[in-house]
Amino acid sequence: MITSKSDIHGVKPVPGESLRKLFPFFTEGPGGCYLDSAATTQKPLVVLNALRHALVHTNANVHRGAYRLSAEASEQYDLTRTKIASLIGARSPSSIVFVRGATEAINLVAAGSDSLWSSGDTILLSLLEHHSNIVPWQMLAKRRGLNVAFADIREDGSLDVDDFRSKVRTLKPKLVAITQLANSLGTVPPLAELVALAKDAGAQVLVDGAQGITHLGVHVEDLGCDYYVFSGHKMYGPTGIGVLYGRPERLEKLYPLMGGGDMISFVSTDGFGLAEVPQRFEAGTPAFPEAIALGTAADFLSGFSRKAILDHEQALLESALEMLRGEPGVTPYGPATRGGHQAAVISFSIDRVHPHDFATIADTHNVQVRAGNHCAMPTLRRLGVQATVRLSFGLYSTKGDLQAVSQAIKEARRLFSA
Ligand SMILES: Cc1ncc(COP(=O)(O)O)c(C=O)c1O
Fold first, then answer.
1. What is the rounded distance in angstroms from the CA atom of residue 338 to the CA atom of residue 340?
2. Residue 133, Cα to own-chain centre: how many angstroms?
3. Is 174 in the pocket of ligand 1 (CB under 6 A)?
4. Among 310, 294, 301, which Cα is nearest to 215's?
5. pTM: predicted TM-score of the whole model, two decimal places
6. Half-sphere exposure of residue 210, counting CA atoms within 13 Å on the CB side?
7. CA 355 to CA 386: how far, in whole Å?
8. Residue 240 sits in the same domain as residue 290
9. 375 is catalytic
10. CATH number at residue 112
11. Residue 3 pLDDT exceeds 80
12. How wide is the angle at C-alpha 322 spanned by C-alphas 190 and 26, nearest 5°?
């Protein structure tokens, strides 16, 4: 466990090149210019070790065995709840529900919030959302006869706050679900303002923190949101584990997505009783080794000052924008192109070069970038593009990665201008 900020394997917790020695992906694995951290991050050795330790030394099912090993595993599993509560500023560990990831968390809220809805009610989203913060609501709307509305974005990809305000006032949504950091464009909406507007209008607010948790951090109590969701694998933790934070009064009213072992207080041939929150949402054997390693990822992330993370990723964003602006035929997207708030992600297109072709060319330079719609079709359609190339940064990203992208752009232009 990381106990102090200088205790990350003896390396000073400073983002950048020197940090790569903490990530076996760079020292033993393929390494290279990995610029797809918004899809999934690389894992530091401490997290891999925590996973291995859990599987080797405390591998017994949680909350079941009366023997020491199971009690130890359960203790470690529940300790992660405490670490996550502290990471996100939640008052109580019982507000932390373990799920598979952000997608499952949103589906849980959408499927379990039946008592909230009457036919004709509205859910307000934004045009910045990832499909996983759209489709579960559309499925719910179809089932219950609800309306799904979208707050608009401007040409630069920033959220149109006036439109959001007006929709909150006129449509009176029962729930607003909004991203903290858009994975497609890197847009950072003014979250505190949006949450306040929604709460003033009496709406519940779910914040999609899948990107925000890693790059911006959060204090859910200060923010005042009702739900906050994220995935472990995007915050230097394992796959298959994520978090739904819910205010206690919300979780009490939420119905579980799945039934089974461990989520009941009793079962008889006539029926069952629900276990307390949060256990009632964690049916079956949870991904407990991954949850334990997520606790280590939370320690790892907390080992950096938030300012160091923001400064590092902002410097990379500015360099990327400068580099892209210097390349003929390249169009960068996102609020930063007009001085707006953007973080850790930049999307662009290259004249006459399809994003997929660019990604393939970049790959021959050992540069991994994402190309496509980034699971954000409504965002891209609103901007009038079908696909972009996306660079996304992590603590280990460097300006050297950007130079490699610049080389790949030059080669793509050369190949496709003939
Ligand atoms: C903003 C955002 N929300 C939700 C998700 C879904 O996360 P997961 O696939 O880990 O459930 C992603 C994944 O890219 C994302 O970027």
1. 6
2. 11
3. no
4. 310
5. 0.97
6. 29
7. 10
8. yes
9. yes
10. 3.40.640.10
11. no
12. 85
